[in-house]
Amino acid sequence: MEFDTIKIDSKFIERKKLVKEFVNSQEYIPLRRGEMRVVLQVPKQEQEYFNAVIDSLMLSGDIYETKKGKIVTTSSINLYPAVFISNPKGFGFARLEDSNDNDVYIPPENTFNAMHKDKVLVRITHPAYGTKRALGEIVKILSQSTEVIVGTFDEGKGFGFVVCDDRKINDIFIPKGSTKGAVTGSKVVVNVTKHPSPNKCAEGEIVEVLGHKDDPGVDILSIIRQFNLSVDYPEDVYEQTENMPEDITNAEIEGREDLRNIITVTIDGDDSKDFDDAVSLEILDNGNYNLGVHIADVSHYVTENSPLDKEAYKRGTSVYMADRVIPMLPHRLSNGICSLNPNVDRLTLSCIMEIDHSGNVINHRVVEAVINSKCRMTYTKVNKVIEHHDNEQIKEYMDFVPMLEDMNKLRLILNHKRKQRGSVNFDFPETKITLDNNGKVINIGPYERNFATNLIEEFMLVCNETIAEDYYWQETPFVFRNHEQPDGEKIEGLKKLISAFGYKIKGKDEIHPKEIQSLVEKVGGTPQEHIISRMILRSMKQAKYQAENLGHFGLAAKFYCHFTSPIRRYPDLQIHRIIKEVINGGILPNRINHYDKILSEVAYHCSTTERTAADAERESDRLKMAQYMSEHIGEEYYGIISGVTSYGIYVELDNTVEGMVSLNAIEDDFYDYEEENLCVVGKRTGKIYRLGDNVKIKVIRADIQARTVDFMFAYEEGEE
Q1: Pair 155, 186: CB distance under 8 Å
Q2: CA dihedral of residues 617, 297, 542, 479 (deg, nearest 10)
């Protein structure tokens, strides 16, 4: 029985967990497979099944089988599962699992011919020291990358090469008969048939021709394929969706709390089409705020293990590309029956919180409800009311102005409370890319944040914290959103970096979020604000979903989860199911057992799909930025130095576009890179370019295929 023929069900996951716990136990002495079967009393008829479990644990990098056949944990012999991040120059980095913080440098001679994104086992030969990365060698390729390779075909005589969009992957040779009719300039999908060797490049076959690189829409389609994102839904999903109602029925309302008479509104972006959250606010007789956060009851329609549910789980999240949204759920649900559209009845899971004037949630309840949103509001218009007191806008929202003003008061209270406990507010300028109907970029600039966006943010945060704390103390199976304490080593590195700007933070092995918050506030409004904020962010761990609660460092919250967006995030949908079971009589023992088996895997999968979506969105933005700047060659802009390396200086413009000035392109001197001071220094002139400096640049090149922009410094008159 081969591993890939085994059904990966809850039984298989449970057996893996048992074997993994056994091998990791303190009492364990390395055993061969046969010896382990005896100790674990595996029946003879399950011998092949047991071998498949062992093979699966080896594939995931949890265990290692020595040359003598002994089963050991990988960490016990200084081996660690990782993902290989290659560089076209031959070297690469091993990204240790569950972290973006521990990249290990792999020299060219120690890559084991691994390709980009291959899963590998790495041995650390020299540990990290100070700002120096750890050094390692790859000893085994656990599995080849499952990511699709997309590139541009270059035709030769009877053969060809594919220049990969991801420049971390070198050109792939395509032999005769494997081109699938592609011609020079075709965007293609490639399947690697042979890994590279020291003297030969990788070999592959073209499995799909997407179109010519200049055809409209092929650019974004290439990124969609590169990240293996699903655009269309399986047929059984469409069949299930066809039977979805357009309106809710009286039978569905029965037994729910009727909140249709409460003034409830949605507040979203101008171009939003799916509304999964609505809010309401009343002032109680005791003066406290009664905040209602009403979330679309998606789980009512997306039932467990249905075709819709399986596809939503596979996707994990909606993906927001520059020119389109790839939704987790079909539009018939996300824009229809699940969307809290104005003036129609909709089913919700509502969290209603009594909040005092110090921002404390002193009472709350979660109910299945029915609401009727009274107005679809936008951030822009609400901000005109609460910040600018715009008379025309006040007239349009006349019936809602008192509630909006009370909401703004509560916003300030909640925001103050978060700041008091040390919650970190990063104010990064998100990129807003405006396209015409043909996908051409009209404008690029920072996305406007205002009081209204912060209002909804504060309401969602307090709701998510309230739900997480409630279900933590109920000790039910759950999915939490964790953000762990930064590593002491990373904090020490951050201290050195910010000292170059004259800033300090306290703490060594452990640091309180208030220290980070204080630093963010100190740099606020300075030219270095975004640079230092990014340094801080890079020193932190990634937030992720887990089945146990570890708290959220960035929010300075002991408990946190994602409850408020089940239309576009699967973890929210998952915990909605759990919550509804609890409020409808409690989770039965068999269901607790079910959730205990699946939630760790659900959380890990959702963390993975979230990272994939973020990478795809980033590449889509980089592509459109390169296209936009290709029409501004020769133009000059002001920007700030956002990165300094041994090969170039990165500059971020006011419109959020980032490009690089190659050190070789600076003509007035030869420059040496000083890593400890985050700068380059001219050998002859002593001129210094530092991280955070304001500079003037000229756009000299935009490589649309590589999604990069190149600058050169433009000097003011008399400066050179």
Answers
A1: no
A2: -150
By C-alpha distance, which of 25, 133, 103, 128 is closest to 71? 25
656 conformational bin, left if phi > 0, alpha if psi -120 to 50, beta if neither: left
Q: What is the residue whose two structure tokens read 């051409």?
A: 440
CA torsion 545-550-551-553 (nearest 10°) is -90
Cα→Cα distances 218→92, 151, 621, 631, Å: 30, 11, 15, 19
The answer to whether the Cα torsion of 468, 473, 477, 482 is positive or negative is positive
Query: How is residue 586 written in tokens?
Result: 């409690």
Contact 644, 651 (CB under 8 A): no
Looking at per-residue confidence, does 4 or 33 come out higher? 33
pLDDT at 133: 81
Which of the following CATH numbers is that of domain 3-75: 3.40.50, 1.10.3210, 1.10.287, 1.10.10? 1.10.10
Q: pTM, whole model, 2 decimals? A: 0.85
> Which region holds residue 585: left if phi is over 0, alpha if psi is between -120 and 50, else beta?
left
H runs (alpha helix) in 562-588: 570-583
Left (φ > 0), alpha (ψ -120 to 50) or beta: where does 167 sit?
Answer: alpha
Distance CA 641, CA 171 (A): 32
Whether the per-residue pLDDT at 9 is higher than 70: the answer is: no
Q: What are the φ/ψ torsions at residue 138 (nearest 5 degrees)?
A: -85, 130
Closest CA to 223 of 317, 328, 322, 86: 322
Cα dihedral 84, 87, 92, 93 sign: negative
| CA gap 128, 379 in Å, rounded | 46
List the one residue out of 479, 564, 603 whose CA is nearest residue 298.
564
β-bridge partners, 277: 295
CB 609 within 8 A of CB 315: yes
Tokens representing 578 are: 């759990």
Pick the CATH number of 630-713 from 3.90.79.10, 3.40.47.10, 2.40.50.140, 3.40.50.450: 2.40.50.140
CATH of domain 149-215: 2.40.50.700
Q: What is the pLDDT of residues 562-589, one digit of tens each?
A: 999 999 999 999 999 999 999 999 999 9
Report pLDDT for 443: 93
Q: Helix or strand or coil: residue 299? A: helix
pLDDT winner (highest mean) among 48-57, 192-201, 362-371, 485-494: 362-371
Residue 110 token pair = 């120690």
Identify which of 701, 630, 690 has the alpha carbon closest to the alpha carbon of residue 665: 701
Question: Pairing mode, if any, of strands 361-372 and 257-258?
Answer: parallel
Cross-strand partners of 71:
31, 65
Give phi and psi for 204, each to the nearest 5.
Answer: -155, 180
Residue 550's identity, in one-letter code, is L
Q: pLDDT tens across 551-562, in order?
A: 999 999 999 999
Q: What is the DSSP string of 317-371?
A: B-EE-SS-EE-SS-HIIIIIITS--TTSEEEEEEEEEEE-TTS-EEEEEEEEEEE
Q: What angle do CA 486, 572, 554 make, to 5 degrees?
A: 20
How far is Cα 276 from Cα 576, in angstroms, rounded to an integer? 13
pLDDT over 70 at 467, yes or no:
yes
At the topology level, CATH places domain 78-143 in OB fold (Dihydrolipoamide Acetyltransferase, E2P) (2.40.50)
Cα–Cα distance measured from residue 527 to residue 424, given in angstroms and rounded to the nearest whole number = 19
Measuring CA to CA, which residue among 517, 465, 215, 217 is closest to residue 353? 465
Average pLDDT along the chain:
90
CA–CA gap between residue 711 and residue 649 (Å, rounded):
9
At residue 169, φ and ψ (nearest 5 deg) are: -105, 125
